[in-house]
Design goal:
heterotrimer; A mainly alpha (about 750); B mainly alpha (about 150); C mainly alpha (about 150); A: mainly alpha; 5 domains; two-stranded antiparallel ribbon; 2 strands; elongated; B: about 150 residues; mainly alpha; two-stranded antiparallel sheet; 5 helices
Chain lengths: ~750, ~150, ~150
Amino acid sequence: MVVIRGGAAPPGAGQRHRGSAVDWPGWLACAAALAGFALCLLGWLAGGGAFALPWAPSLDLELSFALDGLAVLYGLLATGVGALVFAYGTRYLSLHLEHQRRQAVERWRFWPWMALFAVAMVGLATAQDLVLVFVFFDLTAVCSYFLIGFDRAEREARTSALMALLVTVVAAVAMLVAAVLLYAAHGTFSIPELLARAAPSATTTLAAALLAVAALAKSAQVPLHFWLPRAMAAPTPVSAYLHSAAMVAAGVLVIGRVHPLLARSEAVLTGLLVVGAASVVVGGVLALRRDVLKQVLAYSTISQYGYVVMMYGMGGAAGNGAAAFYVLAHGVAKSALFMTAGAVTMATGEDRLSRLGGLGRRAPVLAVAAGVASATLAALPLTVGFFKDELLFTAALRHGPTTAVLAVVAAALTFAYVGRFWGALFLGPPRGRVGSTPVLLVAPVVVLAVIAVAGGLVVEPFARLAEDAAGVSAGGPVALSPAYHLDARAENLMALAAWAAGGALLALPRVVDRVSRAVAVAGERAGPRRAYEMAVHALNRASTALHDREVRDLRTSIAAVLVPAGVLIGLAFAATPTAGAYVVGAVVGADWLILPLLALVVIATVVIAVAKARLAVALALSVVGFALAAVYALVGAPDVALVAVVVETMLTLVFVAALARMPRAAPERDAGAPARVRRRRRDAIAGGVAGVAVFASVWGFLSQPAPDSVSAEHIRLTPAAHGSDVVTVIVADFRGLDTLVEITVLLVAVVGVATLARRRLW
Amino acid sequence: MRPGGRDGAPDAVVRVVARLLPGPSLMVAAGLIAKGYAEVGDGFAAGVIVALAIAPSYVALGAEGVEAALPVLRHAPAVAVGGLLLALASGFFPLLLGEPPVSHRPAPGEHVVKIGALELFTPLLLDIGVFLLVVGVLTVLLHQFGRPRREGGR
Amino acid sequence: MILAFALAAAFLFGSGAYLLLKRDLIRMVAGIMLISQCAVVTIIAASLGRGRAAIAVAPGDPVSDPLPQALALTALVIGLATVALLLALVHRAVVVFRTAEQDRLAATEAAHEAALERERRADREEVGPAPEEAGPAEEEPADGGRAR
């Protein structure tokens, strides 16, 4: 794909461009994003398209992509906003690295992930296979992990990255479960087919709910919203992208993609509505008195995506259409606001509203552009934002009075915190020193503002995009007709009410302060973040405890293998009927010779276990080996017997040689110490239990020989392979690959021996 | 292992036997390989037998003594690697001909040239490769375990 | 016969497991050797439908199943390689720690454990402050962000 090429230029090239030199990997990513944007646009105008490649046919997995309305909307958003953010990032990242006294070559830790982020979003938007969706969904999470943790020297950044990863990825598992559930019920992972086949049922409802959980965590909805404000630790371009067109948008994208499935169940839709409304209120109230710029925007994102989720919860053509339009308008406005925050911080070195103000006169272009973006978010006329609220009010009115009231409250909150944000930044007495604002940090904001105004004047293209996208979510054609109406219709009245309420909130900072602080404190005391932290710490503790138990020393490591294995075998025995499973076997002919040999083996084995001297151990081991070799010869395995004899001789030799180089076995100190006796007794019991378990399983296994063996075929084919000793032919021909691997192991082992002796091979 | 003999000098008989033993053992090995496909035995057993014939030299002469008496053993690592390569080549050459690995030539059913019990076909190469590898590996092993220790540790 | 082979395998394995738990590293190697012998015996015993050796078989002859024998051959060879490697390992441990007893090794392990503990503490910090450390919010609750 084009975008990948942007990130895959040879590494090390950045080293030559130090400091403020041109950030060409960034520009490459930007160009690639622009190309992607053009492709998406052309594809949309050409009426879309689809292709599918087999991926894992045995699992019914397909790499199927389609450029439908929803894909176009999110594809354009990801590439368009992406291109602007990347352009902004080329400058921002250079300054950022300079401030942190890091090398310019660290760009290579940034741009590939950004590019991959864009690719993952486009892939997610176009994917038509539920498992493929899951893959891209998690890919965005992985990208976000590395991008949020870009300032990896800072613990805050690392912790935040980990939190974002854990919350979104763990929740994404729900999506995989849902995919498997649906596959079990309908035999396909393909989303269009699933939508066609799934009838309302308990399974469908469960799968829909699981899908919603994954999507809501990604979209930072209450109660899984807490990762998003922390993710502000990322560099600003990442935040801008993450909030407007990627990551958080991925959640609502998935909801839009599978919405017909969610709409099979009224309960799921109601759930979406409730979660969305809660997010709107919680995010909005908390955003009202954040001090850090990016935090205001982060909570506003929670609230804004709450709108979208709420509208998807309303469902129907109106709800879906409004949701799609909302995502578009919000993406434009929110990325502009983030880039404004970044530009302001770069220029002043301050990141708190309380220490900023009166920037309007000193950075007029930025002030106007940011004003337009704020107006878009606050849904003022002449911006594309006005229509997003108009459509919201229409959908809410159609759904019922409660949602209508909620919509007004939401709009009022938005108006209030956006107004506070912009006002505190650009109005009032000048505060703080202002450096220069590089053109590249302002231009993208201006471009987005121009788009917002253009959308406010000519809404038609935006409406078409949203209609096409909503058509996919609603499962049928959707008609949107946003327009200015200069009359007293309900939507207009609601908008006026919202502005008035928002203005009132702005005018009463003290009351707002108190409420917001109460919510924040309550959230801190009993909020989900605390639960998350407790869960993570508990898991960490459990892991540590297990680790301690397992690897305290060598013996516990061995026990950690033997004990669970023994327990498993025991459980298997408890669960299996054993009647008739055991056969004693007849003793005929040569068997009378084998029996004493086996007895000898047993005796020698016991001698090994109890012997004091190591030499006795070595000799008894060779007795076992030779006795077994004799047994092999007697059971018609002369090849094995021959090899066993020579190997055993060799082993004895090597063992004794090794013993000769060991220190003499130290006399057992404090031999009578009770601890040692106790331990020996425990070891004996463990060995006994292991022996009994092996006895039970081996006896059972030997009692049930398979009626026919593959070897019949081997024996039949041996003459054709020019041989008559079947075993040799198996080793050299039929299972020749095994032999090749085996002899390689032999050489590797001897290299290991030589290495351990710290010598060369010779 | 230390040089044998009570006074520290190896016994003359032991020295002679130790030096001569590898020769006959090679004959046994050749026999085992030659009739391997028809009778008991294969390259692996042959290799271990040769190595076992070398082992007494280590017991009798010690590592330095063996190096002096049988300097040819110095090539053991090369023999091991060469044997492995020969075996792998005999296993994987069919890949070059577009056949699955370990397809032997002549193919099943085709005529094979025989010299007594010795059949001339590619599994023979595999066997010889295994034989060389095992001789080399075990000789290196004996060498590593037989060298007097320089490090402390007693 | 089946019972006899099963008993032999059981003794081999039980004794091997017992030796594995010993302090002496040489005995641990012996334990592993016994367990691999147990595996080979089991594999060979699985071809109990016995006859003569599978050489120049005429159709209809009762023969010992050759496949387990081939597997046993592999097992023996690998066993040789493993034991050689283990012995070298033990020897190395003896050279480094001057003892083949686990007591002394345990002391080294304790030092290793201390290093692990440090690592673990670093991990704990990585997942965020402990909940008990997270005090009540003052000015800026949930303030994770840094504007940059």
